[in-house]
Amino acid sequence: MGEKLPQVQGDPQLRRDTLSRPVRTLRAKMVLLGSSGVGKSSLALRFCKDEFRNTSPTVGCAYLTQVMHLSDVTLRFEIWDTAGEEKYHSVTPLYYRGAHAALLVYDVSKRDTFIRAQVWLRELEKQYVAGSTVLWLVGNKGDLAQHRQVSVQEGQSLANDRGLLFTETSALSGDQVDKLLLAVAHRVYECVGAQQGGLSEWQETPHVDLRRRNHLFASCCKVGP
Amino acid sequence: MDGEAQRATASWGNGTLAPGDHLRSDRAESPTPGLVEGTEPGAGQKSAMFVHAQSFEDLTAEAEEEVRREADINNPGDSEEELNVLVGEKEPHLTSESKSKEEDVSSEAWRSHRKHVFVLSEAGKPIYTRYGTEEALSSTMGVMMALVSVVESEKNTIRSIHADGCKVIFLTKSPLVLVGVSRTSQSDKELLRELQYIYYQIVSLLTLTQLNHIFQHKQNYDLRRLLAGSEYLTDNLLHRLDRDPGLLLSAVTCLPLASSARDTVSSSLQAAKSKNLVFSILLAGDRLVTLLRKKDQFLHHIDLHLVFNLVGSSSSFREGEGWTPICLPKFNTAGFFHAHISYLEPASQLCLILVSTDREDFFNMSECKQRFLERLSRRTAYQALKDALKSPTYSVEHVGIPELRHFLYKSKSSGLYTSPEFPDVYISDSEQERLMGLYQELHSSLHHPTRPLRFFYRCGERENLLAWVTSGFELYLCFSPLGTKALAVAAVTKLLKWIRKEEDRLFILSPLTY
């Protein structure tokens, strides 16, 4: 669902190489955490479809996938876009447990969401196994510069202190979003993928082959009345 | 997979899943006024899909019984009427309609809404208001709680206040208190039923166990914290209560679809089962395509309406696969189910809801969906289903009764109803709401707590109405004002014949289980 055709970054030489020989596809679990209304779903939508839409609050959790092609491996991100509302907090551990990447999202125009991101960080750190999860602090809504309440320096210094990576994005304009996903992919592959059994291989099952299904469907239409 | 398909075909052959020929010929006979439950047009062949879907009495009975029981214990001599506390001029005149959270609660516009709903905690803390903000209403809600408490201290229960064309209805569902203020002509019982819906909406998000737990530990807890971001669900449910005949009739309507296509869809869904899967529901907008359930487990129509409301109110399921805890309060108020909610195709109206008991079942449910889609898309029924989506409703002209403008028909035993689209005369929102208001009045009369009517004909300036309830069905008809009573009565028989003829398409006659 929502998977794009191969989208290879880098020089054309490298692209030809990756397409000509079989590339392993590895599964990577990513979770988006943060207060409600900071733009987690909008980021997820940018990651997967490069679109922006006003969305209603996420109910429970939304699951999306996106395939990233790196030079010598393909990562299939399984993105868990969690609801920020308090009533769903009891189920959130389900989603960050075993995640290879956790994005802690806050809204640069709302200080309380920055504080909330730190609460999430403390919760994650309780479960954190060094080297198993890439933690990334994301200051979203960079387009709201005139209402900024959290400076870039503050975000950066929190990240430095706690050993996180940091990016400011705008899901509205799409600024830095692609770069973020690519950087996360590289980082996950470097940190987690290198370990023995860090990332499992993804096997495509016949059930989810959309192209094949459409083909079959098209042929059954033809014979129909 | 092939084995399952064979089994499905085999069971069709022996008639256990689909109606056999002899049954069909029985059902084709013209209906008579003495129709009994289970043989009316639209009645299921095997068993109902819903828990006790007969009428809305089962919804209000519980609350009424509670009140009565308490009253009996406390004041053995009191009659029902005396429990209504009557107060003089209490609420001002209400007329027009507008919707804004920001509005000034001291303004005339705020006061003039047709129907207000307030939810507060037993400590008097505001939880929800339909119009305006909760903060601005803390003193008003304080007064409401004071009224409840004063009557309670007399070992009694406040049920309603009738004043100046306005009704104030109280529903105490510890730890919550719900108050409705209405200028409509609906009965207390109907208004109470709407408050119950709101109560169940809140429980479906949190479970009653969690609600009780919270308020036991902290009496003055601000529940808005937990409900934050979900107010729109309650807003939408209230809107539906004004507009959706399904909520009025305690019934669900189906997408008109040839029974062969529906059976194929159902059996494809039946094949995509999983250990913890309890209900599979396929919706097309607000219409049911099919519903599968675990054997011996029934879904209550209220729970189904709450699911409809959740799916219809939220765009978040469009972007991926949704996975959310959901309490189905009529099934069990204590715990959460976990629902996998997704659309079959990105721009499709078809939404599949798979309800599991296990919160770690996401990938199983996701696979069930893929299996279902895989199986269905190999069948021509999928195209038939997609074609049916293009005409989700039908015109009343198909019935062939010139004076008939609109109708609601509910089969009591299946808990399903059918209704044509609104004709041009009722094309505007306000006219549709007016017609729904008239149906609500008829419904109130047919379900009056002490003097229920069975048959009701009413002539008006703008339309004539007829309502009829038997043990098998409920029927509400709207005629042009030029028609006569004799014509209306004759139309009933004709309409019932038409529904019988079309029942394969309009209803789910052979619901399946896993």
From TrEMBL, chain A:
Matching CDD domains: Rab5_related (cd01860)
Keywords, sorted A to Z: GTP-binding, Nucleotide-binding
Keyword Nucleotide-binding included in the entry's annotation: yes
Superkingdom per UniProt: Eukaryota
One of the record's GO molecular function terms: GTPase activity
Alphabetized InterPro entries for the sequence: P-loop_NTPase, Rab_GTPases_membrane_traffic, Small_GTP-bd, Small_GTPase
Record PROSITE patterns: RAB, RAS
SMART domains xrefs: RAB, RAN, RAS, RHO
Stated family: Belongs to the small GTPase superfamily. Rab family.
Protein name: Ras-related protein Rab-17-like
Taxonomic source organism: Eleginops maclovinus
Lineage: Eukaryota, Metazoa, Chordata, Craniata, Vertebrata
Automatic annotation (TrEMBL), chain B:
FUZ/MON1/HPS1 third Longin domain mapped to chain residues: 403-503
Domain of life: Eukaryota
Stretches for region Disordered: 1-84
Membrane-crossing segments per the record: none
GO biological process, one term: vesicle-mediated transport
Domain FUZ/MON1/HPS1 second Longin residue range list: 275-373
A single GO cellular-component term on record: Mon1-Ccz1 complex
Pfam family for this entry, one: Fuz_longin_1
Domain FUZ/MON1/HPS1 first Longin: from-to ranges: 115-237
Family: Belongs to the MON1/SAND family.
PANTHER family: SAND PROTEIN-RELATED, VACUOLAR FUSION PROTEIN MON1 HOMOLOG A
Function (record text): Plays an important role in membrane trafficking through the secretory apparatus.
The protein's name: Vacuolar fusion protein MON1 homolog
Organism name: Eleginops maclovinus
